[in-house]
Hints:
The chain has 111 residues and is of the alpha+beta class. The chain has helices spanning 10-22, 56-69, 88-110; strands at 2-7, 27-30, 47-51. Strands 1-3-2 form a three-stranded antiparallel beta sheet, with helices on one face.
Amino acid sequence: MKCVYEAADVLEAHVIQGLLEQHRISAFIEGEHLMGAVGGLPAGRAVRILVNDDDVQESTVLMQEYDSTNQPLSQQATIAQGGMPRHGNNLLLAMALMVLMIFVEAFRFFF
């Protein structure tokens, strides 16, 4: 097995593992359990994605595409900077539904 990517954290490693599995490439996360040893802080690229030797070339191409299209979370714009939350529309819909439910409950209580 060979390393095709060094993830920033365990979450990113699982995202990449899922991406590779969508392309029928078996992937293994190495160092996933080491993150707990340092309190969940980044341990200097300790989490690596490994694939079989036969899949290295295709995996490398996928990882280059992943790097070119995705920014690390630390570099993405926050809401205060004009960025949009990932599921902003769903959040607004859920909040509107909650407000509606509160009004309906208040109406039933008073009438």
